[in-house]
Design brief:
2 copies of one chain form a homodimer. The first copy, chain A, has 247 residues and is an alpha/beta fold. Chain A has 9 helices and 11 strands. In chain A, helix 5 links the parallel strand 2 and strand 3. The model of chain A has no long low-confidence stretch (mean pLDDT 94).
């Protein structure tokens, strides 16, 4: 079972102040890249939002033509916020642990997950669930914290002996639990290599369509000079995969 | 055009002393992983070896049933060594720059490249050449220096302020030329992100089959304790892709 840090009051109090929660999708700098991996027109589609949080993407999918949206999250806090927006009968919010979620087969056209899968303890199980839940031709798009971000004991930039800013990578090939103190102490994540994300998708039957090791554009850096450091190591990994065939 | 460092006498004098040249494939610790990505039986197949060096893999392919092998290298020094082994009329060695090589269409069953593609200045061109040179159903297997290895200004482990060994990553998202002083001064490589390798294959029409961010096994570390550090950041990236359809 994944840790439910979003229902820790200390964590949540900090978390809801992030731009991506107060402003919504425009507060998430990687959203344009993620959106570009999704179908441009969702008209008539069934959309699955895994780790839906406040439901920003669930509502976006609905606004872009999806006829049915299922938003799933483990956190009561998050779902309470999502349900605080005007109700739409095409959107259903479900409280469930993605580590044990069971989905109806051959149901969805698009499965989506933003910055959630790195909390799961059993990724192959969830990926297999998503695969069987998609219709043939369906698309799975997700983002996670980049493996370079989850790997080290201390994911913070340091200066080398010559004064250059570098990222102290360690433990990249040692997969498993990582404890960080981001917003709250003891946040538990699962570090996986990039190859593990790729191979888990392929072994489930998916065909890989695109990968984006997201970093800020020149325009974003002009606006937020501190983000230049993200070019040292990307913060997010975005992937798109398709269920081309019925297996 | 790729730099031809292997024809620099200083470089070559050092290079031919590496175990992977003196012993052959058993001197390359990643070879078992790379071999496992290749078809187990090459009987009747046509095999392309890009950056063939001394021809170790070209001869291995022949020994494993390939009926025709083309080994391509830019270096006269390397090809002279390859031609020093007993001749086999099924193996042809060709001197050519992979940045401008033209291959016959729909000819090969397997294309292979070991630790060569990170020297090329135009990777999409070569990948497209390989794609059109493979028969439908053909396989492309290659290794390169891992992007974590090619990225930094100084790819050497350092100690952090608490005495832990870390790898000072920088410039991961800044693709392009890197100059290192490995065996000789001024060795020129091209740094590309993992996403670029993946997307270049997909955009050429390939279906990704497997990725291996190679690190030493427990057995290898028991034999060579110094190799433990490779788990901090993998030295090699291995990939397998297929031409499933004729496009």
């Amino acid at each position: 079972m994944a840790q439910n840090i979003y229902d820790s009051d200390d964590f949540f109090k900090e978390y809801i102040q992030l731009p991506r929660q107060t402003i919504g999708l425009d507060g998430a700098p990687e959203w344009p890249a993620l959106r570009s991996l999704l179908p441009t027109d969702l008209t008539g589609m069934k959309f699955l939002d895994l780790g839906c949080g406040f439901g920003w993407v669930s509502r976006w999918a609905r606004d872009n033509g999806a006829v049915q949206v299922l938003g799933v999250d483990l956190s009561e806090n998050m779902l309470a916020k999502a349900r605080g927006f005007p109700a739409d009968e095409a959107i259903t919010y479900l409280r469930a642990d993605l580590d044990s979620l069971e989905l109806l087969p051959n149901t969805y056209n698009v499965a989506f997950s933003s910055l959630t899968l790195h909390y799961l303890t059993d990724l192959p199980r969830l990926i297999a669930q998503v695969y069987q839940a998609l219709e043939a031709g369906g698309t799975f798009v997700f983002s996670v914290e980049h493996p370079l971000f989850t790997a080290p004991r201390r994911p913070e930039f340091i200066k080398d002996s010559e004064g250059y800013t570098v990222y102290p990578l360690d433990g990249y090939l040692k997969e498993g639990e990582r404890i960080t103190n981001w917003m709250a102490d003891g946040v538990m994540k699962q570090h996986r290599t990039l190859a593990t994300y790729v191979n888990t998708l392929i072994e489930a039957g998916f065909t890989l369509c695109a990968m984006d090791e997201w970093g800020p554009s020149d325009e974003l850096i002009a606006e937020h000079p501190g983000w230049e450091r993200s070019r040292i190591r990307p913060p997010f990994l975005l992937m798109k995969a398709s269920k081309l065939f019925q297996q």
